[in-house]
């Protein structure tokens, strides 16, 4: 009988990052007006994961998201979507990448008032000259609970329903990653919980990658992981968060009492 110890099992490799920042800095202004919004930030957002970004006002949360999404340029370092380095892209290629590989959900719903819910959802595809994948469109519409509202215009929808349209619009292109900036900030607690549930479901059941900026520990508890920023730097992270553990960590980091919104 062999006395050689059994080899330890090899851990499964981590899924590739959907997006990655490496030494990313963003500076606005010069001289006395110079502001360092991001200070050499390095962070990865795993594929098929839901990450919340938290921190006090002015910590760089939205700036990080905008740089990672190609909405703002970087001053130094690297921002990547998949294997694509954003800073090396022409305006045309950057526009195409944002259109095809990135979904956006903002606090303001940003729906076109003259279009129906269905037309707003499929707008990114129409702009790209692409026909919707009917099966995927039906899956997205069912996921966000809009099957009975597709012919309604935004003015005929509640705030929660409008944000569901925005979530569906972000998912319909099957993007590499969805960035959500305070997506529940304009919603009551019930509507906010519904939208967060849809985002959570899209990660768990549809394999989507979501990165969400929020002030709200209840919203952050829907995520798999919370990344904390302070003064433009990543200062901590928390896995499998609950509202209580997020609130406790924020207090330890000295970020003050968060605003709990829907």
Helix content: 25-40%
Content of β-strand = 15-25%
Please tell me the total number of domains.
1
Topology as H/E string?
EEEHEEHEHHHHEHEHEEH
Uncertain segments are 256-262
Task: Please identify the structural class as seen in this structure.
Answer: alpha/beta
| CATH topology (fold) name | Rossmann fold
Number of strands: 10
Radius of gyration, whole Å = 20 Å
Helix segment tally: 9
- Let me know the largest β-sheet: 6 strands, mixed
Q: Please tell me what the overall shape is.
A: globular
Write up this protein.
The chain has 262 residues and is α/β, with parallel strands linked by helices. 31% of the residues lie in helices and 24% in strands. It has a single domain (17-252), classed as Rossmann fold, CATH 3.40.50. The strands form 2 sheets. The protein has a 6-stranded mixed β-sheet with strand order 6-7-8-3-9-10, sandwiched between helices. The protein has a 4-stranded antiparallel β-sheet with strand order 2-1-4-5, with helices on one face. The longest helix is centred in the C-terminal third of the chain and has 16 residues, at 189-204.
